[in-house]
């Protein structure tokens, strides 16, 4: 496989990480580094804020690559109530970044929308280094919420007003409390680092604010769960500029429409073991309680991959059916299919609000498994998003590529990987991810970049 001339920058999603892993670097890799090394991939993995907005994460990505102290912008910091400056990166990962040395941006999950945000900031030279659209060669989205996700609504987040739903409160309290603890005790960052220093001195992490329904972080709307609600995402998509200058690829994961009976069945012994542990502790049998707790934890770690995402897929599908109209033309049936975090129709391309806007059903109906594809022109905010059939066979040979029609810039080439879920593109998916990454890197090197030398 040919090595890409330009580095591929890997942008993780929520709760993700790059090179620095949780639990003193003993947790599992987020990205399949061993597979990428075997492919001789030219890549850079970044560590971004786990819940931060796309703007904040894009700023962090820039300074990690280019070097310097993260500057979120004075106007942005004032608007959302957090510090203007973040971490300092004295050793840049790609200091030669320029129009002559561009990068490919590959984002998994919310990393895809972070890639869009970073590109938009570069085109307006937000960082004051003379950047423009030439600094990015392509954007690749893997299971990214390019048109938003209904998962925030499942947790009770809505645009209209702060939510008081139990799941929302638990999530907010958990995030703010841990952020406060790791600010006061930096050693805790080795356990799990949120990488959100801009909120370190915010009133949002004061004890009074942490347990308040009017939490400053919750009401600021400068968090990924707010930014990637469908209505907000579609509005942002209408403002995208210079997308006609890029090579664009989106890879969608699959979705299951059936009730996850296997996951529900596996959940029974886990709950039973946890209940038995609690009963033993209540009866004073501490030794037995410890053993049962350890067994419960081991069972959960072994079965969690077969339980969590199937159950969330099922709940998201049912919850989406009961949602109000999130935007003009919102079709609940089209948005039900999801991979456990992102709606499948949203992974295809950045859409804009339109009454006749339609999403795929997520099952590849009417398309082959390998060639399910759709494209969209997103050259400027004044253009409407269009959708047309355009097969993207990632596994084509070089001879077939030479005979085929050249890939167009500003066109989203989308393929779907069936029988996959939101782990697609990460180290947690050992089946489809290696082949997908190999094919994407080959496409970038042999078809997109190869035109530079022709």
From TrEMBL:
Question: Where does the record place the region Disordered?
Answer: 356-391
Q: Which GO terms describe its molecular function?
A: hydrolase activity
Q: Which UniProt keywords are present, listed alphabetically?
A: Hydrolase, Lipid metabolism, Secreted, Signal
Q: Where is the Lipase-like C-terminal domain?
A: 5-122
Q: Where in the cell is it found?
A: Secreted
Q: Name one GO cellular component term.
A: extracellular region
Primary subcellular site in the record, as a coarse category: secreted
An example Gene Ontology biological process: lipid metabolic process
Keyword Acyltransferase appears in the UniProt entry: no
Which InterPro entries does the record associate with it?
Answer: AB_hydrolase_fold (IPR029058), Lip-like_C (IPR056304)
Compositional bias, Acidic residues, is annotated for 358-372
- Enumerate composition-biased segments (Low complexity): 373-384
**Keyword flag Hydrolase:** yes
**This chain belongs to which protein, by name?**
Lipase-like C-terminal domain-containing protein
């Amino acid at each position: 496989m040919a090595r890409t001339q330009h580095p591929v920058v890997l942008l993780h999603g929520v709760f993700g990480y790059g090179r620095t892993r949780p639990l003193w670097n003993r947790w599992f890799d987020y990205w399949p580094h061993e597979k990428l090394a075997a492919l001789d991939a030219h890549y850079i993995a970044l560590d971004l804020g786990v819940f931060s907005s796309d703007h904040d994460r894009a700023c962090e990505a820039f300074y990690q690559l280019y070097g310097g102290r993260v500057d979120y912008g004075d106007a942005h910091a004032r608007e959302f109530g957090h510090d203007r400056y973040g971490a300092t990166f004295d050793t840049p990962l790609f200091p030669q970044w320029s129009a002559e040395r561009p990068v490919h941006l590959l984002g998994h999950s919310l990393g895809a929308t972070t890639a869009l945000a970073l590109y938009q900031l570069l085109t307006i030279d937000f960082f004051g280094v003379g950047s423009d659209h030439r600094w990015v060669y392509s954007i690749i989205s893997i299971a990214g919420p390019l048109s938003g996700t209904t998962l925030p609504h499942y947790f009770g987040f809505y645009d209209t007003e702060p939510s008081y739903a139990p799941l929302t409160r638990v999530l907010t309290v958990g995030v703010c409390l841990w952020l406060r603890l790791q600010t006061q005790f930096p050693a805790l960052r080795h356990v799990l680092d949120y990488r959100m220093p801009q909120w370190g001195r915010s009133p949002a992490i004061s004890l009074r604010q942490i347990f308040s329904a009017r939490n400053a972080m919750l009401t600021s709307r400068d968090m990924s769960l707010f930014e990637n609600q469908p209505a907000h995402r579609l509005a942002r998509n209408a403002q995208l500029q210079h997308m006609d200058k890029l090579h664009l690829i989106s890879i969608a994961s699959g979705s299951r429409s059936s009730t996850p009976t296997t996951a529900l069945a596996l959940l029974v012994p886990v709950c039973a073991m946890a209940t038995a542990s609690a009963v033993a502790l209540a009866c004073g049998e501490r030794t037995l309680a410890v053993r049962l707790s350890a067994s419960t934890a081991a069972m959960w770690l072994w079965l969690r991959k077969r339980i969590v995402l199937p159950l969330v897929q099922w709940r998201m599908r049912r919850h989406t059916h009961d949602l109000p109209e999130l935007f003009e033309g919102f079709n609940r049936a089209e948005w039900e299919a999801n991979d456990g975090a992102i709606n499948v129709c949203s992974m295809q391309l950045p859409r804009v609000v339109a009454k006749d806007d339609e999403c795929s059903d997520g099952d590849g109906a009417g398309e082959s498994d390998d060639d399910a594809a759709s494209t969209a022109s997103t050259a400027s905010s004044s253009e409407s998003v269009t959708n047309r059939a355009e097969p993207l066979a990632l596994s084509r040979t070089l001879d077939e590529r030479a005979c085929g029609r050249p890939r167009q810039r500003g066109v989203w080439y989308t393929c779907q990987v069936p029988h996959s879920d939101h782990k697609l593109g990460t180290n947690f998916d050992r089946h489809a991810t290696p082949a997908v990454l190999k094919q994407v890197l080959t496409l970038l090197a042999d078809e997109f970049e190869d035109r530079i030398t022709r």
